[in-house]
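Course assignment 3, question 2. Fill in each field.
Student: A.L.
Task: Predict the tertiary structure for the chain below.
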Amino acid sequence: MNSDVENAIIGSVYDAGLDASLWPGVIGQIVEYTHSRTAILTALDQLNPNSNFVHAWNIPHVGIEDYQNEQGKLIDMRQYMPLWKQMGIGDVIHQDFPRYAELPDQDEGSFYEKCLKATGICYIAGVLLDQGEYRSAFLGVHRSANEPVFQQEELDFLKRIGVHIRRALQIHKQLSFARIENRNLYKMLDTIKVGIILIDEYSRFYYSNNRAQQLMEQNKIFEFDQHNKICVAKPYQKKFEQLVQAAQADHKHKNRDIGGVLALENTEGQQFMITATPFSSMNSLASLADQELNYVVLSISDMEQRYALAVPFLKEAYALSARECEICELFVNGLNLEKIAENCSLTMNSVRTYVKNIYAKMHCCSQTELLHKLMGMTIHFEHVY
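Answer field:
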């Protein structure tokens, strides 16, 4: 495998995290690099349908249309969920599909007829990018029957690139929440709940969204020197500098992982997580920066950050009202009924009535059962190691 080509692909992955229209080109690079015939990158999240996508390379349009049909995607999830549960997120599989045609009355046969037959796909190698009760994401590269099966070094590459795609998808998911109402990138970045900071290769500060500004002002995560460089608490400074260096998109560090995650504390002992990723395409933020420098995006979250629920899903799936969703979010963040009443300016009787209605709509019989159900519907930024 070629480390220069691989690093270039990684840089393209992070650009696509901000601009989803770039994914087909990224997938094309992966197809060429792995000597594959076709590929597909799919993300399905019932809690955040605005983040759903299917991007493919060299797959006939009819195959994509059939796959994008909800039945096709759900069959795909049912097909692979048991297998992925055994292996886990970030793991790689390789399979062959000829036997699917021999099972016409089962999901395998239906999936073959709807999504595989027209493509000529015989061998697949793939990496699981996300998995949950309501979500699934997967990158698959394919070869035909007259091509060789995938080798271990190609599977190893998929595992490596999977880490970076997972990080990029976290950025994509956060932006998708804001994209509904805001088309301008700056406005979208200000809407999302994770802190975003843009720095250059010398750790000089260029931009922060609203959430990052709140974290910096209230929690003193960073300090600034006379050159506007950001620094962290002394015990973490060396690791932070190494993280920033590793996340640069100049591809000088051929034998090192690109980007990474750092857990740190401020001077008061509050804990935070930082994910550092390269940002090589400055077109969307052209007014901020010098095109000749390398840039790094820092995604920051407070480890005690409040849970956010998938409100559109709760409204659609359970017909919860806006007030009921508000009560659920307060409940999942640890408030008891008295505190919920105080926060919502309601009487205790009103809160009990709302909770009773929530139980009925969500088919729950106790606070424990409701909490368990709601925790499966939280939306958060995952720091991918």
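Instructor remarks: The chain has three domains: 3-179, 185-302, 308-379. The chain has a mean pLDDT of 80.
Grade: pending
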